[in-house]
Amino acid sequence: MRRFIVISSLAVVVATTVQVATPAFAAAPRVLIVDGHGWGHGRGMGQYGARAQAAAGTRWYGILTRYYTGTRFERLHGSQRIRVLLTHARGVIVKGDSRTTITSASGAVIASTRGGKTYFTIGRTGPAILIKVATSPAGPWRRLASVRSKFVRVAGGRVVGVLGPSSAHWYRGVIDIVPSGAGVDVMNYLPLETYVSLVVPREMPASWPMDALEAQAVAARTYALRVAQVARARHKSYDICATTSCQVFGGYARTVRGKFQVLESRSSNVATRSTAGWILTWRGKPILAEYSSSTGGYTTSGGVPYLAPRLDPWDASSPFHSWSETVDMSQIQARWPAVGAVRSVRVVERDGRGDFGGRVRSLVISGSRGSIRVSGTTFQYAFGLPSDWFRLIVPKGEYRFTFNMSFGQHNAAVRFLQQRLRAEGAYPKTAPISNYFGPITRAALQRYQRAHRINPTGFLGPVTRARLNASA
């Protein structure tokens, strides 16, 4: 669920005005440095914070109560099932095994298989569902049946295979194909607990501590149940989607370029079973248990009491707790051409919580033709920033290197290192300028170090930093 669902905030917005560029119509900088915190929307549980707490011995229920204010734990009774929208397409190919059956909504058998080398393509012909059969996924296809039904259901042995243009996915439960528009909705209909066990390793590394996985399982189960209840009240044909707009769900396994990869994990299965049925509620109803990778140290309001802003000191160990990126002024102008040549970008509203005054609520972009006000999340998405908690810095004069850097780092300072090395003739003119300290950067730095009689480590340490700063 990465997790950018827009919910109105009840937080009090603190207005700030930070001048981060030169005055309008003066010579504008070519690039802005963007320093920030966190990864994701920051509402509800922070996954890296959950990992740190679990590693320190906090149980899963203690972790959850630190993120979801005033909630209660309740346990579901009876079996629950969920309909997961996998894709909408003109048609879909499914692989039959020795026990595959295709039935209509009434339960009438349309087709069945006795061997494994059978493929079905299911699509539309007018108002009817058209089913064709072949012995190869490439065809040739033979018309098998045309049926008028609310849906057709494909059931296999342990799993059902759904083939795509470049990959195949395997799903537990059954696959329902439902007429929708000019095509079909392809859905996986399966037990809720099975669904949760397959979401957990897609949303959180299965190698993380068990209590973190258990907290994730309860959050994922609660979120799914809440979203499903809303979808059913609105009479949708499915309960939840399978993408980052909801919760990431990839099924049991996948085959990519001939390589079979099981997505299910033993540890996440254990986490799901050990918390089976447990959900978080507010006033007797499942909560919208949102979560994100890294909160940056402070969660943000979700517009409801149980998603109140909370300090998250456990996020400090996250690799995304602090980050740095760059945005070219040309990128800003390309995104909002109506303002003309960009002269300044000012943050005018923040939420008032944490470093820099908190998450950005809105900015004003001014140029030679006028100004435009945009939200912090709009600016974030436009340039692929990890979160909406950031500040903008204009480099003044030549950039000075104040900290060490090495291979594998991703930081705005890497861009300036590459530019300085290119000016020295060490960085290839055809190589891209980026924030990534990769093999090209290391080789270029080694060339620079050899030229200046410095030990060619490919590491930007104190000696090399001093030499680069002296030439600035």
What layout of secondary structure does this protein have?
Blueprint: E1 14-19, E2 31-36, E3 45-46, H1 47-55, H2 60-65, E4 72-75, E5 81-89, E6 91-96, E7 101-104, E8 109-112, E9 118-125, E10 128-134, E11 142-147, E12 152-155, E13 160-163, E14 167-171, E15 174-180, E16 183-191, H3 192-203, H4 210-233, E17 240-241, E18 253-256, E19 259-262, H5 266-274, E20 278-282, E21 285-286, E22 291-292, E23 323-328, H6 329-335, E24 342-350, E25 360-367, E26 370-375, H7 376-382, E27 390-393, H8 412-423, H9 439-451, H10 462-470
Parallel strand pairs: 3-22, 5-17
Antiparallel strand pairs: 1-24, 2-23, 2-27, 4-20, 5-16, 6-9, 6-13, 7-8, 7-12, 9-10, 10-11, 12-15, 13-14, 14-18, 15-16, 18-19, 20-21, 24-25, 25-26
Helix pairs in contact: 1-4, 3-4, 3-5, 4-5, 8-9
